[in-house]
Amino acid sequence: MTKPRRACIIGHPVKHSRSPMIHGFWLKSFGLEGSYEREDVTPDALEAFLRGLAARGYVGGNVTIPHKEAAFGTVDRRTARAEALGAVNTVWFEDGLLWGDNTDVTGFLANLDDRAPGWDDGLDKAVVLGAGGAAAAIVAGIKERGAKRILVANRTAEKTEALIRRFGSVVEAAAWPPSAATFAGAGLLVNTTSLGMDGKPGLDIDLAGLPAQAVVTDAVYVPLETELLANAAARGLRTVDGLGMLLHQAVPGFERWFGRRPVVTPELRALVEADIGR
Ligand code: ATR
């Protein structure tokens, strides 16, 4: 008899992570005996924890804030996407080596493909607000889909410069706060700043410059309908909330650890939505 497989989420803090709920739902729906546990690991203990992952009985796991860059430096092998981002959020073993991937790119793309099909058809210009870790994954995804220009507006200009160094001249610096000129002709607007999140100020920007066919999406998913999404919907624009990015980024990890490819279903979404509303 083989032992049930165990995976975990490694973060600090990790108590509020919804990943155990997502992977728990899939384990149950496949009737698998495995588990997905929370591991609160401080930054000074991360490297030793990852090196001892197999000895602790884990087949892999997710890595979240504030460990994604440190995990990048600790794994033995990385996927091309992890290399492009300099950050790892999913780890697993292959032939005794610890591999690292970044599935935030997949999560972002799969969410838009699911909720706004055709969003990338002939995409010429996209606008990204913010330039942190989430922005890097999102810029990588938009670049993969062939956008010609990705305008990044961020409060701190140096962070935009770092994205330009990482992704090249497809990324251009735009003014913060974003202007109507930045939005003109854009097919996609993405918020990756923490503005609009519960407990933070809202993202109160004038969307008048956006074309009528633009898609607006938010990486923030608490609340589900942010001020940005409400404003965009009021203008008749297509909107996509950020919860799907969280759900879809979990798919590749589950498949690697447990050997079955899960699906993001309305039932899973409803379960996590109810938890957010609580
Ligand atoms: P993540 O990894 O989730 O992207 P992060 O790296 O902390 O998190 O990035 C948060 C983003 O929100 C940054 O772009 C940040 O802008 P700065 O680079 O200037 O810090 C942005 N942000 C947070 N609070 C903000 C505020 N009050 N006004 C404007 N931008 C803000």
What does this 3D model show about the protein?
The chain is α/β, with parallel strands linked by helices and 278 residues long. The protein has two domains: 5-103 and 250-277, Leucine Dehydrogenase, chain A, domain 1 (Rossmann fold, 3-Layer(aba) Sandwich); 105-242, Rossmann fold (3-Layer(aba) Sandwich). It has helices spanning 19-30, 46-51, 68-74, 80-85, 104-115, 133-144, 157-167, 180-183, 227-234, 243-249, 251-258, 266-277, and strands at 6-11, 35-40, 60-63, 77-78, 90-94, 97-101, 125-129, 149-153, 171-174, 188-191, 215-218, 238-240. Strand 1 (6-11), helix 1 (19-30) and strand 2 (35-40) form a beta-alpha-beta unit. Helix 5 (104-115) crosses helix 6 and helix 5 crosses helix 10 (243-249). The mean pLDDT is 97. It has a six-stranded mixed β-sheet. Strands 9-8-7-10-11-12 form a six-stranded parallel β-sheet, sandwiched between helices. Bound molecules: 2'-monophosphoadenosine-5'-diphosphate. 2'-monophosphoadenosine-5'-diphosphate is lined by residues 130-135, 154-156, 159, 192-195.
Q: If you consult CATH, what is the topology of the largest domain?
A: Rossmann fold
Note the overall shape. Answer: globular
Secondary structural class: alpha/beta
Bound molecules: 2'-monophosphoadenosine-5'-diphosphate
Biggest β-sheet strands, sense, barrel:
6 strands, mixed
Enumerate how many helices there are, as a single number.
12
**Span between termini:** 40 Å
Average pLDDT, all residues: 97
- Rounded radius of gyration (Å): 19 Å
Total number of domains: 2
Q: What spatial order of strands do you see in the largest sheet? A: 2-1-3-5-6-4
